[in-house]
UniProtKB/TrEMBL annotation:
<dbReference type="Pfam" id="PF16867">
    <property type="entry name" value="DMSP_lyase"/>
</dbReference>
<protein>
    <recommendedName>
        <fullName>Cupin domain-containing protein</fullName>
    </recommendedName>
</protein>
<dbReference type="InterPro" id="IPR014710">
    <property type="entry name" value="RmlC-like_jellyroll"/>
</dbReference>
<dbReference type="InterPro" id="IPR011051">
    <property type="entry name" value="RmlC_Cupin_sf"/>
</dbReference>
<dbReference type="InterPro" id="IPR031723">
    <property type="entry name" value="DMSP_lyase"/>
</dbReference>
<dbReference type="GO" id="GO:0047869">
    <property type="term" value="F:dimethylpropiothetin dethiomethylase activity"/>
</dbReference>
Length: 214
């Protein structure tokens, strides 16, 4: 438990520094970061014992960490790497009608939250990992979501905006209720997410039909 506390503490300190020094002119991103820092966990501590589990996608984790190893987020990668053996990777969505193999292409691990390895009452934090050549189709949730790409360059879309390649060094904001997607190309994509707001309601897929009736 003591080792876990140290790892979580190091990770949170590194992430706090990263957010404090965020180099962007996007006022929405800066506003979200300010709100995240206002509810930052005061005494990072381990909330539960690790129960590590892998998915068929985690075979790409090492490659994704290596992609980011010397990049803009190398300090975050260094803080996350020692946590890797303790992480519990899951998919969490019901099967998608158009993409039935998603569970073997996309995986998530949440390790900071009200009942996670590191305790935080008002934030969720975790990692999203996409296998190469994977489309994470349109989805939406009421929480505000900040993404920091760590390894690999994904193609990200939100709302009606044009798809944009985003690499480590950038920060992506998905405001509450805005539909978004991520796609990987030849490399896997690893990104850190932070949820703030409604932490209870899960993300759900949106089909084209649902988009039309919105
Ligand atoms: Fe999301």
């Amino acid at each position: 438990m003591e080792q876990m506390n140290r790892l979580i503490d190091t990770f949170l300190n590194q992430l706090y520094r990263r957010l404090e020094c965020c180099d962007t002119s996007d006022s929405d991103v800066l506003d979200e970061i300010s709100r995240i820092l206002q509810v930052w966990p005061e005494v990072p501590s381990s909330g539960k014992l690790p129960s590590p589990s892998e998915s068929t996608v985690t075979k790409y984790l090492d490659a994704a960490l290596k992609l980011g190893h010397t990049g803009a987020e190398s300090s975050l990668i260094a803080a996350i790497r020692p946590l890797a053996p303790f992480l519990d990777w899951t998919f969490g969505y019901p099967p998608h009608p158009l993409y039935p193999n998603l569970e073997s292409q996309v995986t998530f691990t949440q390790f900071i939250g009200p009942e996670d390895l590191g305790t935080a009452d008002h934030l969720l934090m975790g990692l999203t990992l996409l296998a190469p050549k994977t489309y994470y189709p349109p989805h939406v949730h009421p929480a505000n979501e900040l993404y920091i790409p760590l390894g690999g360059t994904g193609i990200w879309t939100k709302g009606s905006e044009e798809p944009l390649p985003r690499e480590p060094g950038s920060v992506i904001l998905h405001p509450s209720g805005v539909i978004h997607t991520t796609e990987s190309r030849e490399d896997p994509v690893l990104a850190l997410y932070i949820w703030r707001g409604d932490l209870i309601t899960s993300s759900k897929f949106i089909t084209d039909q649902e988009k039309l009736t919105e």
